[in-house]
Amino acid sequence: MTYRLEEIASITGSTLTGRDCRIERVITDSRNPYDPAATLFVAIRGNNHDGHAFIRSLYAGGVRAFLTDTDIDTAAYPEAGFVRCPDSVAALQRLATYHRNRFRGTVVAITGSNGEVLAALEGYRGRSDVFDEGLNELTTVVKYLAAFGVPQENFAVDLTIARGLDYYTGTVYETTLLDHPEIGSVCSGGRYDNLAEYYTDRQLPGVGISIGLTRLFYVLGEQKMLNPALPTAPADVLILPMTEDLAPAISLATQLRSAGVRTQLYTEQKKFKAKMNYADKLAIPYVVFLGDDEIAAGVVACKDMVSGEQTKLPFPETLARIQAGLAEKNAGKVIVE
Questions:
Q1: Cβ contacts of 309 within 8 Å, gap of 6 or more
Q2: How many Å apart are CA 263 and CA 232, to the nearest integer?
Q3: Which of 121, 128, 169, 289 could pair with 193 as two cysteines, CB 3.0-4.6 Å apart?
Q4: Among candidates 21, 27, 63, 23, which has minimal Cα distance to 42?
Q5: What are φ and ψ of residue 74, in 5° steps?
Q6: Could you count the other beta carbons within 10 Å of the beta carbon of residue 74?
């Protein structure tokens, strides 16, 4: 990624004196190694003898672009260009921010087949250790997906993916339904080697996914693939306490839940018709009434909301009736083929 020296001056809010030229590589201070194969852009700080000597040595070695906050006799370097700024460190920070944003925008714009994307990314290798590590990991993932027999048309290297959480340390991925791109990702995740360190001193590398069940079932519903005969109510039984003391109703709910029956306890002070409408609206298959008479007789009044049949039986028999009815209602498959 190259710049013209006049562009550097504009980005950093500095003044260009001397000759304009194209910049291929940036060196931020005199401690960095000199690479005679590249056109270097060097920042020199301070008005001192060592700084001037370093500029002279680099100029003699072919460097023709400088960012400096020291006074330089530019006439002594007729073929060089100088970006003169009050604070070279601040100028470099502005340049670094601009460069990162530009680099990201350039990389994200890369599209094509998996091989074409990886080949294009290879052109940026050597500019950042972090980038090189990420490219190596991405190349390995693509290689192993092929080894696992995943067809090339079933996955794509997408450089626009950005997960919203900062604990990812490697490759991230998202799964979409090609016929329903409007709902976004339905299965996403990535590698997070350091996440477990929030809870333990041990280093436990990890990788995982989350599945968007709501989105998946929305699509299944849209495509008429869900069995409409299966119950979708949030509970199997709705208990309507008919006494001020809720203890018997709570005890009954506990017994039903212990037997694996999803049970909801209705405690709002509303009219009986409103309570029944609530059960009917949610398609709860069974409603249980528990009043003083039922408690005294040791029975449970239970109404099948589909057939309308109502019984008063001891708890074991009522439970058996409910379980048999639920087994029949849940006998079908969820997905209609």
A1: 303
A2: 14
A3: 169
A4: 27
A5: -65, -20
A6: 15
Tell me phi and psi for residue 92, to 5 degrees.
-65, -35
Asked if residue 187 lies in contact with residue 209, where contact means CB atoms within 8 angstroms, the answer is yes
The one-digit pLDDT tens for each residue of the chain (337 residues) are 677 888 888 888 888 888 887 776 565 444 443 443 334 455 555 455 556 777 787 788 777 888 877 777 888 888 888 888 887 777 877 877 777 777 777 888 889 999 999 999 998 888 778 889 999 999 999 999 999 999 999 999 998 888 766 788 889 999 988 888 888 889 999 988 887 777 888 878 888 899 988 888 888 888 888 888 788 899 999 999 999 999 999 999 999 999 999 999 999 989 999 999 999 999 999 999 999 999 999 999 999 999 999 999 999 999 999 999 999 988 888 887 7
3-4 and 300-304 strand pairing: unpaired
Cα 111 from Cα 67, distance rounded (Å):
35
Beta carbons within 8 Å of 79's beta carbon, 6+ residues apart:
19, 64
CA trace torsion 279, 284, 289, 295 (10° rounding): -150
Residues 6+ apart with CB under 8 A from 24: 2, 38, 39, 40
Q: Which residues contact 15 (CB under 8 A, 6 or more apart)?
A: 9, 83, 84, 85
- Nearest Cα to 305, choosing from 331, 284, 281? 284
